[in-house]
Amino acid sequence: MGFGGDPTGAAPRWLAALLPAAVWAVVLWQLARAGIEGHLPGAAVFLAGLLVTVQALAVGANTCAGTWRDAHLPGGLLPTPLVVGLLAAWLVGRRGRQDQVPPCSRATPPAARLGSKERAVWVGTATNPGAALPVAIPIVVGGPMVPRLLQDGAPISAVLPFFLVPLVLIGLPALAFAMVRVVVGPHGASIGLGPWGWPTRRFAVADIVWAGTDFVEPIRFGGWGWRLGGGARTAVVIRRGEALVLDLADGSRFTVTVDGAEHAASLLNAYRLIT
Fold first, then answer.
1. If both were cysteines, with which of 28, 178, 193, 262 could 132 make a disulfide (CB 3.0 to 4.6 Å apart)?
2. Does the domain spanning 122-128+177-274 belong to CATH 3.40.50.1980?
């Protein structure tokens, strides 16, 4: 459709319906290559199923309409995108649980050498620019709608939620998991998420009974993000690769993917010995 809301015939309906599916197929294929071959994160599959179904329903609603203002979608179909997304994620997750997951490769680096009066601080980060892509969704989808709705006479108080609500609910949480910053010092370890370093998790040296490293595959933790597992296991998975692993005095375990994890573990082990 053109900016006036009238059909232009610039693209066939089948292309408008299938193009998002093709784009998401490429995205999911790249995500599978980043993890274990053949596996996909459930959250990405859910989002793909939801958005592709929304696009297909939008095309169907506009098929017999003269303009976009005349397009209507039966209320009974509104839950369809959610159902399709959940079903796709469940099917992929069920397949992943049936496949064999490689064992972890935990290692214990030697403690760093520190004098009795020496103190050192280590700072490491891990980034995943792809995790920030959902930030663009509300901007790309909601942004062009704002001037059009204002032009049609809608009050700004009714227009802004189309842009701000998806940005807050989708964009900001995604941006938080695009980066993690780990600081190790005399007082222990601090893990902060996102560019703003919040939320933050802190561990005192006295609470750490073992510090080591592991090579993390996101599929082992059910995908990317702040993951909660059985046996009091918690993980912050930003990307595939090396990670710092902390066994805590309360019997729980915390894992965070970060570059240079061996140096962080070595320094923590050194502080454990002199504390």
1. 178
2. no
Residue 188 — left, alpha, or beta (φ > 0 → left; ψ -120 to 50 → alpha)?
A: left
Beta pairing partners, 210: 247
Residue 3: what pLDDT?
43
Domain boundaries, the chain: 1-100, 122-128+177-274, 129-176
Mean pLDDT, consecutive 10-residue stretches, the chain (275 aa), reads 49 66 68 50 72 76 64 68 78 54 66 86 91 70 69 71 71 83 96 89 95 87 76 84 94 94 96 87
Count how many Cα atoms sit within 13 Å of the Cα of residue 264 in the half-sphere of its side chain. 29
Q: Is 130 exposed, middle or buried (0-12, 13-18, 19+ CB in 10 A)?
A: middle
Model confidence, pTM: 0.60
> Which residue type does 115 have?
G
Q: How many CA atoms lie within 13 A of 77 on its CB side?
A: 11
Distance CA(27)–CA(108), nearest Å, equals 36
Q: How far apart are the first and last CA of the chain?
A: 68
Spatial distance between the Cα atoms of 124 and 114, rounded to a whole number of angstroms = 19
